[in-house]
Every structure is written in C-alpha cells, then in structure tokens.
Amino acid sequence: MSGGASPDTDLLIGWGNGLRQDDGVGLLIAERVRGWGRPRLEVVAITQLTPELAPRLAQAARVLFVDAALERACPDPGWSLEPLPCGAPGSQPLSHHASPGALLQLAGRLYGSTPPAWQLLVRAHSCGVGTELTAATAALLPAALAAVRDWCGRGHA
Fold this sequence. Notes:
single chain; 157 residues; alpha/beta; five-stranded mixed beta sheet; 5 helices; 29% helix; globular
C-alpha cells in the first residue's frame, strides 16, 4: 500500500459533481477542510468513489465520507453525521462506482484492514446544471463544517 494515509492519519473523502449545484457540496466541504491544514488528516475531493481508494482506506485510522443527499435521506436539520456500521452493505466493490460500504468491504478483503467510518450527508435542494450551491444548501455549510471539526476533534486529526 502506498500513496495513502499513515495508520495514525484520518481520511476525509468528499465527493460529488461540482457541475450539478448541490451535488457538489461534498467536494466543497473537502476543499474547505483541506484549508484547515490539519497534519493528521488526509483530504480527498473526488467526483465518485472508486475501488482505487481501497488502499487509502485500509491505511487510515478513521474515515469520514461526505456527500449530498436528498431530503428523505437527510431530514431536519438538513445534515447528518452517522457512523457507518462495519460491513455495511454496498454496491459491487469492483464496479467503476462504489458506495462507502463497498469500499470498506474491499479494503478489508484486499488489505485486511477496515477503519471505523462515518458518513456526513448534507441535504441537496437542487441538482440542476450549475456550479454554485443553492442558497438553502449553502446555509447548511456552517453547521456541517462544525460537525466535521467536531469529528476531527474526537480523533487526532
């Protein structure tokens, strides 16, 4: 395993489509968190989850996945930060697009290590064509970033 986090480093993976309004909120959060300059936090901003992330997951102390979600998956207050159960079901781990659970399973299967994982979901109000978040989703950013800061503080990032 190379090019990933060391075993005492946390990993934040923000993903989404920056050309589809609120679908890009995971990317935006990742970029903002990268700006914090935390030495024990590796930040990845990526358009989709792929199997190539498995080695980084296997090396991480903890991982936080950050993505947009529709309202039914993200009720009030408009964001949620929840632990992902170990062995969480996911899509086919060897497809070109994977879920957090599938990537965790793949990391465990290939590298014998599955870090504790959480998922931060932020409500997407619109995923139309555009590079800016809607005002409603942008208003959720301060609370979502505070939740990430709290998550970092509970570990060692």
